[in-house]
Amino acid sequence: MDFYSEYRSKLRTPDEAVKVIKSGDWVDYSAALAKPVLLDEALSRRRDELTDVKIRGNLMDGPVHVAECDPSQEHFIYHTWHCSAYERSLCDKGMCYYTPMVFHNLAAYYTFFITVDVAMVSVTPMDKHGYFGFSIHTGTTGEILRRAKTVILEINEQLPKVRGGYDDCIHISDVDYIVEGEHKPFAKKPAHEISENERRIAENILPYVKDGATIQIGIGGMPDAVGSLLARSDLKDLGMHTELCSDAYLELYHSGKLTNRLKNLNKEKQVLGFAIGSPELYDWLDDNPSVLTFPLEYVNNPSVIGKIDNMVSINSCITVDLFGQVCAESVGTRQISGTGGQLDFLEGASISRGGKSFICLNSTYTDAEGNIHSCILPHFQGDIVTSPRSQVYYIATEYGVVNLEGASSWERAERLISIAHPTFRDRLIREAEKMKIWRKT
């Protein structure tokens, strides 16, 4: 078949392609590097022609032009499934709305509940068989395009070609319009400087990780610090099964620690849902036969994670209360990030043979006035619960690691206070006594 003739017949300029969008439509951008840069700019140029167009993104770097061009939100209303730092700044200005979810259910939301009038995503160039690859955003893209009434692809020549387990590409016959144009190379992100507290937390976790463990590292500086320390450890034959592939895994690979030899599921393959990192990371993933991308309905499925022996999940949070509830996404009611896959990997690693799940946090934070506060709280007051107390496993601070699985209310309070900053321990004990969750032992 002549796929290239069909390709040419569907080729449009960005401004021509976005004419299909009508007032009141729901438009999806998928996630991260799937952002359709040229189409987003073109849609923003139609601002005054449209009203109430709702756009969904996920972990997008800025700028998102449809949000920036319409602060009043009369024309465009932007939503995110998980805040990047940029999207958090939009939320702070009232220019973005967070949509709660857990990643392994994201495809099902689209299948059963969500309307997609137009999907606009960036993909790799078409191959000789007529397929466009989803690159490093396979985790979130397939079901969005299946549900869309109109599919517009933006060809991004900078995207790495990454091999997939399934649902990692779309055929020309399922596409309505195609847009081409020049894209800038992906920017190098500033390196995260590991703090002394992060180093101590990583050192506290390290004894729990054994040779042959498969590692999931979540989003943020804290998990990356643990990954960096793992790379400098004496551990051998680590594996990768993660929703987000970051530069921590590249460091593990360069150190010789990441071999995937001992994985009992997807043996010798590095499994990911999507990737965010440096150009060097994308170059490593490009056409790498040891790397497989899957939809998050697979990567983050607790029953899949639970089949991986010695699965170690490492995530971070903002605060924990004495009942063992975890907030990883808000400060009070201010949205910081999102639920993401923390809950998925908590459950999955907990049922893995030899598995462990860690949630890491600094014991304190300092506010804008220089006052120090405990990150272990008596109880939440408006903070969003990301992980319920019934699911929480290991909690780690710079003062140690405690296991909350199977622990009663007083045991949880006692263990969490033991890893709180010493300045706040007596105060936390008094609060625990008031809540009737303290006994003298």
Q: Which short descriptors sum up this protein?
A:
441 residues, alpha/beta, 16 helices, eight-stranded parallel sheet, single chain, 21% strand, 29% helix
Protein described:
The chain is of the alpha/beta class and 441 residues long. The protein has 16 helices and 25 strands. The strands form six sheets. Strands 1-10-8-6-2-3-4-5 form an eight-stranded parallel sheet, with helices on both faces. Helix 6 (106-112) runs parallel beside helix 7 and helix 15 runs antiparallel to helix 16. The longest helix is centred in the C-terminal third of the chain and has 13 residues, at 422-434. The radius of gyration is 23 Å and the shape is globular. The mean pLDDT is 95.
Sequence-ordered SSE layout with sheet pairings:
Blueprint: H1 3-10, E1 11-12, H2 14-17, E2 26-28, H3 37-44, E3 53-57, H4 65-68, E4 76-80, H5 85-92, E5 97-98, H6 106-112, E6 118-123, E7 131-133, H7 138-147, E8 150-155, E9 169-171, E10 177-179, H8 196-205, E11 214-217, H9 221-231, E12 239-245, H10 247-254, E13 270-275, H11 279-285, E14 291-293, H12 296-299, H13 302-305, E15 311-316, E16 319-321, E17 326-327, E18 330-331, E19 334-335, H14 342-351, E20 356-360, E21 364-366, E22 372-374, E23 376-377, E24 394-397, E25 400-403, H15 409-418, H16 422-434
Helix pairs in contact: 6-7, 8-9, 9-10, 15-16
